Amino acid sequence: MQVMIIYIWDVFLSLSTSYADFSASTRNIRVLNMIPQYSTCIRDGILNSETLVRDLVKGDLVKVKIGDVIPADIRIIDSKGFKVDNSSLTGESVAVPRSNSEGTPNILESPNVAFFSTQCVEGWALGVVICCGDLTALGRVAGLAARLQPAPSPLSREIKRFMQYVSVFALGLGLFIASSSIAMGYPFMQTTVFVIGIIVANVPEGLQPTITAALTLTAQHMIKRNCLVKNLEAIEALGACTTICSDKTGTLTENKMSVQHIWMSNTSYYVKESEFDNLLRFNSAFIALINCGALCSLATIKTTGEVYGDASETAILNFFSKYDDLKSIRKKYPKIAEIPFNSVNKYQVSIHEHSEASNYIVVMKGAPECILARCTSIALDKSNADMTIEIRNAAEMACENLAKTGERILAFADLLLDYTEYPLNYKFDTDNVNFPLQKLRLLAIVGLMDPPRKEVRRSIERVREAGVRVMMVTGDHPATARAVALDVGIATTEKCHILTGSDLRNMTPDLLHWTLDKHYEIVFARTSPTQKLQIVEACQRGGEVVAVTGDGVNDAPALRRADIGISMGITGSQVSKQTADIILMDDNFATLVTGIEEGRKIFDNLKKSVCYILISNVPEILPVLVFILFSIPLPLGVMTILCVDLGTDMWPAVSLAHEPAESDVMTRAPRSSDPLVSSRMLALVYGHLGLIEFAAGLFSYFIVMAEHGFYPAELFGIRRRWDNEAVNDVRDSLGQDWTYAERKELERACQTTYFVAVVVMQVTNGIICKTRYNSLFHVGLRNKVLNVGLVFELALSCLICYTPGINNFFRTYPLRWRWWLLALPFSMLMFIFDEFRKYCIRKELFGGWFNKLTYY
Question: CA-to-CA distance for 171 and 77, rounded, in angstroms?
């Protein structure tokens, strides 16, 4: 007992220690959330830069600048170069411009609205507060998630169904025994004892603690793999998962833009190839591109080299910083004037003075179609050339190819101003432009993309090999979503079906269900939080077990409603973490593969544990029926039944959770109609193994009785005189008279022998339950926890039998040691039978009918 307590304590300490880091970070975040947040508000014509965000009301004027968090949903009325990062709300990894322009029916895509909790990454804006608190877009998403009730897990549904059947069966059998006993003349109190014995024997009291302990041990194992399990049942549900609805930004991708391709000097380059550095290190066009990228940018470069600004500009500067010192370039070319990017012009321009050459240079970046129209020349490796029709067509083709891959495309150009026409101290006017923006030199076309995580493609391949369907559900652009889906393996062909939020708004539930059935590979783009929830519910109505992965606020309702909600631990928002059942602490999608494997393994092991527990029910139920029907002394008492269910069986049942996964666990299809307790398991338990165990117990009982003079033939019908305290001359087969006290002492010895026989058989049962398919000679006895548990089972039964005081409480008796061996022949019979059964299943003998009968 002490060993078991120490073991459980170690498990608890491990769980507590593993959870400590996450709890500490959560406490720190909560402390930060308690710090008051301020905003710059204009109210009644008065500017107040320290207005509490919680005091804002509808109609207030709010001014935000770069680095500020939007304090409420605001309608933009004035702005300059204003961009916001909406990734946590819409899933777009690229910062989007917002200005005083026309709106759209879908407010999440409206270019004149900025939303609460998003961040200004560029420029400034003045806006009118239109929604506060729970009425903001974020508040409505959080409220939707709070109102939703998570679907019960497959395991909880299985346990509920099984316990209902067991309860009905136990109560029904108890009522039948009660009515039969009363009809046969048994006293009321004795009938009550019969009924209690039947109910106790039928209900597996150790099932719930066994399942809880097994799930806890698996959760402990998952924490070591950077997977925090908040809801224990989610582990098994992940193994039963049939569909994964995955967010893109931050889940499949890194949520960090990076340069992928460069088209330059009429050649396309993939920047991650090893030859790229050698090809372009001495390329004059590439040197000019670095200068243009460093100068035509609003991002700031700290003294430590860190870059702060828009995601695209940060990616560009981080890429160019590998080849040159950008701070020295900016120092060499001080900025004189600037035209920020806006949605009308679709370009950004800045003018810089060349301190050494005493002239000015114009640098421009923006949408390729706008830049190409202004270029009359192109930079080549060591010279310049005129922009011919062939080169222009090649540039447009390069843009089209990069767009198909889902990359964000920017073109770069420059123009050296003539110092005679634009001398030093020339006054540049950016409102009424007095400098040329035509006849530029095209430097390059750069493709940027939020790159997929390195491990995602292989992980998705393994998930699909396991028969699990993977769909992408994102708020990003359809072209970007398609490209990422092809890159990570969610889509295997260009014909992957793409559905947008607009398509979903026009779909009926039946049409959506039909679409999900018809198309296996589907990508949902431009979806709102409500539509993500709609997709999850549509899958669940089709009988799917749905897992949802996400990290943003927009994913919270879907995470809440899914069978398994999975959030990212590093990039995930607090709303998604609080809503999810599982948190991937390293944001590694590959951990899902481990989770599915662990979930399937735990379901297999739970089947083994349940089978182990149920087998002992048969030798617990049948002695009561034999006692009533054949009027023999009671072979097994209620207290010894509890000793088996809540004592000797507990550790071995829990230790089966430590069994390694079967070799085919990730190649079989997800379980759909495979219950925890199937008819095959009941046939094996009640029709085969349980009967062998009952035979062992009854054989031991009759042997002890015979050794003391009561042969089996003499026991039938003896119960009435045996239990009568007034009768002190019950004669055995040898002619000896037995008093009431002597009979009860012999009865205790026989019941204890029966109990010991059950324990010995349960040791064998624990060994054969290690595997459902493979031979024990193949698997071996490598589960050390189970080995210790079987020794503990025998030691505990010895403690119950031989310890004074304890044996009086449990009505047991100090047995002769040779009586422990009475069950060994039946133990060997059980082992040989089960090995033969597994052999028949593996070889599919007897036409496969034996598999259908006993392979649970």
Answer: 72
Q: How far is CA 584 from CA 226, 485, 575, 710, in A?
A: 6, 21, 15, 66
- Return all residues near 767 (Cβ < 8 A) that are at least 6 apart: 776, 781, 790, 831
280 within 8 A of 332, measured Cβ to Cβ: no
CA atoms within 13 A on the CB side of 283: 21
Q: Which residue has the tokens 């000097």?
A: 265
**DSSP per residue over 183-206, as a string?**
HTT--HHHHHHHHHHHHHHHS-TT
Tens digits of per-residue pLDDT, 530-578?
Answer: 888 899 999 999 889 999 988 777 788 888 889 899 988 877 777 788 8
Long-range contacts of 570-573 (CB under 8 A, 24+ apart): 571/250, 571/255, 572/250, 573/88
Count the neighbouring beta carbons within 10 Å of the beta carbon of residue 851.
17
Mean pLDDT of the chain: 84
Residue 10 corresponds to which tokens in the numbers above? 């170690």
Domains within the chain, CATH numbers bracketed: 38-135 (2.70.150.10), 227-254+453-592 (3.40.50.1000), 269-445 (3.40.1110.10), 616-854 (1.20.1110.10)
Active site annotation includes 247: yes
Specify the pTM. Answer: 0.72
> Encoding tokens for residue 543?
């009988």
Q: How many residues in total does the chain contain?
A: 856
Q: What is the DSSP letter of 215?
A: H
Please spell the DSSP secondary structure of 493-551, one letter per residue: STT-EEEEHHHHHT--HHHHHHHHHH-SSEEEES--HHHHHHHHHHHHHTT--EEEEE-
Q: What share of the chain is helix, strand, coil (3-state, %, to 5)?
A: 50, 20, 30
For the beta carbon of residue 46, count every other beta carbon within 10 angstroms. Answer: 7
Vertex 282: Cα angle to 278 and 283 (nearest 5)? 100
Q: HSE of 833 in the Cβ direction (CA atoms, 13 Å)? A: 19
Q: Return d(Cα 39, Cα 127) in angstroms, integer.
A: 12
Which is the catalytic residue, given 73, 247, 414, 503?
247
**Which sign, positive or negative, has the C-alpha torsion 415, 416, 419, 420?**
negative
pLDDT in tens, 289-312: 999 999 999 888 887 778 877 778
Residue 122 and residue 81 in contact, taking contact as beta carbons nearer than 8 Å: yes
Apex CA 147: angle with CA 144 and CA 150, to 5°? 105
The residue type found at 157 is R
Enter the tokens of residue 609: 């544990």
Q: Strand runs (DSSP E) across 61-118, as ranges? A: 61-65, 73-85, 96-97, 113-114
